[in-house]
């Protein structure tokens, strides 16, 4: 069967940025499973994979709008160091949970650590990047009813 909506797909992938640096890869690990058509992966990749068969591979470039979003400069904020007291081992790239005025949580990462302030960034680390994937389709099967209900792949003995 081919990659189509509600299929469980296992793929190997290598992700590079515009500069050709490898950002992420499944090489040396198990192929990554996802359910096609359920937003498990970024939209630009999902549409490129539609119709592919097991054993096929392809190169896909995904623009930010169909990837992790465009970069919003206003999502970068400098906050006083005191606001983060209680967090040990603060380091650049660390993920933190923040809250908006309504108390809704959102993820930020540490961009810079200054003497008295910390710069935090609510952009996805790959926001604004054009993403260059090389993917190969390792396996395709029908999703089970539970998987479709939950919207994610169940593997091995996992049954959450
Ligand atoms: Zn589940």
Automatic annotation (TrEMBL):
UniProtKB keywords: Chaperone, Cytoplasm, Isomerase, Rotamase
Enzyme class at the top of the EC tree: isomerase
GO cellular component terms, A-Z: cytoplasm
Pfam families, alphabetized: FKBP_C
Main location: cytoplasm
Positions of the PPIase FKBP-type domain: 6-95
Subcellular location: Cytoplasm
Keyword Transferase: no
Gene Ontology MF terms: peptidyl-prolyl cis-trans isomerase activity
InterPro entries for this protein: PPIase_dom_sf (IPR046357), PPIase_FKBP_dom (IPR001179)
One BP annotation, GO: protein refolding
EC number in record: 5.2.1.8
PROSITE patterns (UniProt xref): FKBP_PPIASE
Reaction(s) catalysed (UniProt annotation): [protein]-peptidylproline (omega=180) = [protein]-peptidylproline (omega=0)
Family classification: Belongs to the FKBP-type PPIase family.
Protein name: peptidylprolyl isomerase
């Amino acid at each position: 069967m081919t990659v189509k909506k509600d299929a469980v797909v296992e793929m190997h992938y290598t992700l590079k940025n515009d500069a050709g640096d490898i950002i992420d890869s499944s090489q040396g690990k198990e192929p990554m499973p996802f359910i096609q058509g359920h937003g498990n992966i970024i939209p630009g990749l999902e549409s490129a994979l539609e119709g592919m068969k097991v054993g096929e591979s392809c190169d896909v470039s995904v623009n930010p709008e169909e990837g992790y979003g465009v970069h919003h400069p206003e999502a970068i904020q400098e906050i006083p160091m005191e606001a983060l007291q209680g967090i040990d081992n603060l380091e650049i790239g660390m993920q933190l949970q923040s809250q908006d005025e309504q108390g809704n949580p959102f993820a930020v990462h540490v961009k810079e650590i200054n003497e008295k302030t910390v710069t935090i960034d609510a952009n996805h680390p790959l926001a604004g990047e054009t993403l260059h994937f090389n993917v190969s389709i390792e396996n395709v099967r029908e999703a089970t009813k539970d998987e479709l209900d939950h919207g994610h792949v169940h593997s091995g003995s996992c049954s959450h």
